[in-house]
Amino acid sequence: MPDKNVEMWGGVECTIRRIGEGYTDQLENSGHRYRLEDLDLFAELGIKKLRYPILWEQVAPNSLDEPDWTWTDERMSRLRELGIDPIVTLLHHGSGPRYTALHRENFVPGLARFAEMVAERYPWINHYTPVNEPLTTARFSGLYGIWYPHGLDDRTFVRIQLNHIKGVKAAMQAIRKINPQAQLVQTEDLGKTQCTPGLQYQADYENNRRWLTFDLLCGRIDQNHPLWDYLRTNGATAKELNELVNDPCPPDVLGINYYITSERFLDENHEAYFGHHRVSGHERPDYADVEAVRVRLVELTGPHRLLMEAWERYQLPLAITEVHIDCTREEQMRWVKQSWEVANQLKEEGIDMRAITIWSLLGAYDWNSLLTRPGTFYESGVFDMSGGSPRPTALFKMIRSLAREGHYEHPLLLSKGWWEREERFLYHHHCPTHQTT
Fold this sequence. Notes:
Elements: E1 7-11, E2 16-19, E3 22-25, H1 26-30, H2 38-44, E4 49-53, H3 56-59, H4 70-82, E5 85-89, H5 107-121, E6 127-129, H6 134-143, H7 154-178, E7 183-189, E8 193-195, H8 200-209, H9 212-217, H10 228-233, H11 238-246, E9 253-257, E10 264-267, E11 277-281, E12 284-291, E13 295-296, H12 302-314, E14 318-323, H13 329-348, E15 353-358, E16 364-365, E17 378-379, E18 383-384, E19 391-392, H14 394-405, E20 427-428
Parallel strand pairs: 1-4, 1-15, 4-5, 5-6, 6-7, 7-9, 8-10, 9-14, 13-20, 14-15
Antiparallel strand pairs: 2-3, 10-12, 11-12, 16-17, 18-19
């Protein structure tokens, strides 16, 4: 592929998530757990790097003293033979094995020890994501009660997020003792919240919070930070925040995940929205929290501006680490085209933009219910698993061409995606002004 383009990376949806006493495993759902030959199919695409799991829950479900490396040995060996560089994730929306949990004191030392074990076994691996999307997982597990430990309060949320960040730092320190070259590729969803004037306080909070993972890792949360008081009020000690300020662990690559649902719109006129996600209680009024793309008169920030905001804030290398949309093949192709063009445009503009990552190569299961209704929904990716074995879709040719040659032409790509067409609107926002800060 010509050097003027960003790289093409890939990823396998690999979430092991816990709800109550039960676990579900995306690799079981897709069957990838039992098919080594999938890696050869991925290699045909010409991708440079692959986001890939060596998950704590899978390797050491009962104890860190009894790891089972059988599966990972086979996969790492094959990736090495194929010349694909793994970006290894150790915890992917998970809560860890049963002997720990995101809010427990043993989480940080446990994750660090597991990271050290991985690095000792595979000292040639150079890229790690110890915790995928810490903020997203902390919100779903600590604030919204959806995933284990099902917290519904700010204190649980803050403790989980701080454990995540301290865990990432401790994991990278352990890994770098063995491989000083190891790089931290830190992923996070980077949405943005818009609102009616009456909900400006909530949008301000959410728009500060969206940077929480990167701000903590980069040592930016001191007494002058807008979230300092919130974090301190909800259980963070000055000592643990200052430890990150004085000894930060900045990512080597900021991995930005952008979905069509990432940008939100808040409106207290919740009767105007049907089937929306309502947030209530917490001394907050009832309001609608909906996808901004669905609301007329709301202008999306879009991936180009969001990535530029991340660059201006941190001046660190960037990659789009999840490119995926649940839609028709045609719309999936247009979504990839948008991400590819945005990333290459930013690179041309002088931003250190590294790659886009085709996420869910084998598709994904039950994300329409945030994994709460297992076995009910499948969305395909570059390969369609609905027949039981991986079948290349129209995306296959497109990704292979972009990865190998840097361009791809198809008549379907001359049309705009649904997110840019009139049909996207489900809601009419009646307020004459709304805030975008």
